[in-house]
């Protein structure tokens, strides 16, 4: 991976699973960021309502190449 | 989130996935704890039998509001 | 768990989920390692292509009993 | 500190400062727990509303002696 | 907290206390960032001049909702 | 380890060694908690009096199965 | 900051707040150490008496320039 | 350092050394960011090709003053 | 310590103490690994049976020189 | 613990156990430091010779009250 | 990086720099391991003799693809 | 390494590289400390001026044998 990369931190959410929450974060970031190459999970949390898991929340760092 | 919260640590298990293990932990905790609001994953482990993953184990911290 | 155990570190990949990536790592390790008993997730990363998650990568430590 | 101690994890909140949030957590815990001797800050967070800090949230571990 | 969130890292300063340094960081960020919802303290440092604390410096992560 | 587990945090003390401090914590916890299965050391500290170690203090997390 | 620096670790206490505990540590250290330039908080703890916070304790690392 | 600072995370690369990778990251960031004052190394990695280190990769956090 | 070293991770067990668990791990590893020079404790856990500590488990990293 | 405390870091060694290595470090420190009150284990390592543990090494932080 | 990877931990040394110590570790590992793709620095230490740095020691994790 | 060791924390600086900053810290410490045996890097930071790295700063822990 020659070149320079920038890393942003994003939280994605999903009612289904951690993997879907990650996909959601990446898909959303793709609206404004190009050349994304990798992600790394920072932490996994979630919201509970009425004694049930209502939402999975995954914080990810996403790395993308800086265009010159 | 005004008020005071208590945090407990629970391990949930599932033969299917980490998300199901979390749901299992929360569902079980709901039998005795009320007003749960969030969880945070502490670690993810599992058991292997005969060269295959038999069980996913997720340790979660669960936060709930203290009733007065 | 009486006895002595060795721990190896392996990275499994999957296009679907973190759980599948773990299963993949364990299944592959089973070709050369016997008596595996547990795994622990070290970190969760992934590759992004064209603004979408292409691959989930999970680094796991796997513990197995040393045969005498 | 001879004897056996138990540690619980509690989140206190305050609109004013981190120290007040800790005091709030300890005061509340004192309703149901006796013989508390020390606390340790686990993390400091807060809520933002309309571009201003509305609430300081401090997670503390509190140690107390177990009565026989 | 349904939706997607972005996290930025900011350092606020104050001659008075850690809480004021956090407030300062959030107030300043509000000039350019909207929909901020929470902060988390990353570390607390400070500057010493002539044997006295001259400035408290708090690094915070701030989460805000991404507007579509 | 199929099922759901709860984790508590306890500090045991001993004038002799870290191992004895752990045994002390577990023995005491057994008065009120059943089905304990494992412990994990969180930290090891101690008290010094007159230039000598007077007490070893070990904080352990203890996991036990929740009975239905 | 050209030159060589030494770092010492000190615990300051205060009945009022974490910021006051830091100031107390720095003020005390200034009796014997010169050219102190920065501090970094290592952990925040405290003592509880009769169900109330009696003392805030902050462990700080303090950096100072070595005079030649 | 009175004022407010923002921190960004960048990965620099170099075929020669970690120090050159850092310089590369900072030089590139200077194209779009002004008033940078410090960096902190987050992690050091690299790529291996044909049994030799081909590239050093250093992730750094860079702090810069926010202009009003 | 000039030269190149490899590090392996091993879990030793003992019914008596953490030190004995370490000795057990090192003794067992000596059957297949030569030139071991140091160990470092990674974590200390154990198994509880009938409310008593039945086994101390210590995970150690062991470093040994690679023979050419 | 009202007052100001200083923390030093020391490595003690013993051919027998981790507890003895800690005692050794504290005893030695008592030659030059007074008013020591507590220690905390930072890490546990050791030396291996001829396939056997020859020495336990424990790094401890020791806190002592500063005399005015 | 589709496929399965194994991670080993190695310590390289050099009298010159951290980068050279990494290169040394990788070059040595290449004698017995094929398909190495990346490394990550775990820690950086060194030996001092007569008041001078005699040796830089870098512990690296090295990832390589498992051949079927 | 039989005996008792003390550990100090020092920051060295260099305009050239991290390795030179370490050498600088050790050389300076040798003016007042004898019997230094090892160092360990705690963190690596630096100062940026006019968009360029002006100074590498390395915090190291240095261990030395206590003379009786």
Compact description:
In chain A, 18% of the residues lie in helices and 56% in strands. Chain A contains one helix and three strands; from the N terminus they run βαββ.
Can you count the helices of chain A? 1
pLDDT < 50 runs, ≥5 residues of chain A:
none
**Any idea how many domains of chain A?**
1
Alpha-beta content class of chain A: alpha+beta
Give the neighbour order of strands across the main sheet of chain A. Answer: 1-3-2
> How helix-rich are the residues of chain A, as a percent range?
10-25%
Largest interface: A-B, 13 and 17 residues
What Rg of chain A do the Cα atoms give?
Answer: 14 Å
H/E topology pattern of chain A: EHEE
In total, how many beta strands of chain A?
3
Distance between the termini of chain A: 15 Å
Average pLDDT figure of chain A: 94
The geometry of chain A reads as elongated
The CATH architecture name of chain A reads 2-Layer Sandwich
Describe the structure.
Twelve copies of one chain form a homododecamer. With 68 residues, chain A is an alpha+beta fold. The first copy, chain A, has a single domain, classed as Dodecin subunit-like, CATH 3.30.1660. Chain A contains one helix and three strands, in the order βαββ. Chain A has a three-stranded antiparallel sheet. In chain A, a hairpin with a 2-residue loop joins β2 and β3. Chain A is elongated and about 50 Å long. The two termini of chain A are 15 Å apart. The model of chain A has no long low-confidence stretch (mean pLDDT 94). At the A-B interface, β2 and β3 of A face α1 and β2 of B. β1 of chain E pairs antiparallel with β1 of chain H, so a sheet runs across the interface.
